[in-house]
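Support request from a user on the community tier.

User writes: "When I paste my structure tokens into the form, the page sometimes reloads and wipes my input. The last time it worked, I copied everything first. Here is what I submitted, just in case something in the input itself triggers the reload:"
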């Protein structure tokens, strides 16, 4: 009977230890994969991220939104011309130069509108150049090492069955937590790309007001928002870089469970700071 009980206990220990190691190995893989996705996604231009979606957005912008912007710019040009006439005492005090000024402003407004997509993409091209330069500084340093797992697995054989069962439940909770955080990070990073597409699709409307003194604030705020979301990519990469430095200092030292929970804590911190990058970028540019 003792032999049978010993065999069952040994079998359960093997099952639990393998389960614990698999859970922790999956945790490290999930963290590494998600951080890698952040770095690669942020460093990808909108046109290259999802070419099919980008083509759809461009078609919508040029065929649906651009005609509306054309009506707006026509209205604003007419409105500005009427104001010029009224301000000059109904043409009793006419300065010929004001008509040249009006024609020049209208020409610039039409030129901006006709090159809306090029202007928007130029903002992101500049941002991507900065992001790619920053990405080279942290590439290869974002992975959480798994050196502690071999030592940890050896120490598990010294534990009792009840302790192993509790530890197995412990690691399941940790793995679920990290997977939930991975989902949050996915939503933040991919949500930024969707926001870029949304801003891009409506670009002609605010840019049509850019040359007008009274309504130009709409275009200026839009351009600030565009620069802010481009700057957000750099801030996201900075967050990943900070995370990389933090995890490299704890992944291979100390109590294994403490180290693993510290990794989880840093992942929670990463998710929280990623949430804040959008508001920080907007506050910097005064959006």
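"...and here is what came back when it finally went through:"
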């Amino acid at each position: 009977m003792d032999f049978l009980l010993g065999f069952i206990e040994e079998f359960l220990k093997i099952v639990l230890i393998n389960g614990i190691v698999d859970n922790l190995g999956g945790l490290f893989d999930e963290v590494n994969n998600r951080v890698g996705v952040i770095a690669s996604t942020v460093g990808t231009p909108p046109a290259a991220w999802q070419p099919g979606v980008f083509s759809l957005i461009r078609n919508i912008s040029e065929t649906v939104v651009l005609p509306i912007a054309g009506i707006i710019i026509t209205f604003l040009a007419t409105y500005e011309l009427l104001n010029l006439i009224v301000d000059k005492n109904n043409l009793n005090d006419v300065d010929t130069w004001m008509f040249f000024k009006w024609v020049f402003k209208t020409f610039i407004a039409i030129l901006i509108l006709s090159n809306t997509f090029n202007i928007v993409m130029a903002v992101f091209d500049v941002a991507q150049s900065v992001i790619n330069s920053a990405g080279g500084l942290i590439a290869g340093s974002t992975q959480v090492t798994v050196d502690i797992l071999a030592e940890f697995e050896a120490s598990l054989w010294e534990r009792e069955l009840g302790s192993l069962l509790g530890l197995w439940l412990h690691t399941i909770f940790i793995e679920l937590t990290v997977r939930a955080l991975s989902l949050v990070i996915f939503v933040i990073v991919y949500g930024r790309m969707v926001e870029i597409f949304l801003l891009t699709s409506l670009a002609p409307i605010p840019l049509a007001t850019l040359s007008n003194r009274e309504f130009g604030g709409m275009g200026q705020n839009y351009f600030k928002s565009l620069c802010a979301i481009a700057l957000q990519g750099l801030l996201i990469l900075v967050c990943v870089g900070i995370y990389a430095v933090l995890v490299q200092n704890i992944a291979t030292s100390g109590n294994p469970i403490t180290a693993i929970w510290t990794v989880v804590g840093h992942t929670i911190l990463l998710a929280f700071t990623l949430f804040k990058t959008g508001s920080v970028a907007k506050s910097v540019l005064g959006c």
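Agent notes: The reload is a front-end session timeout and is unrelated to the input. Residues 2-63+116-285 form one domain. The two ends are 75 Å apart (CA to CA). Escalated to web team.
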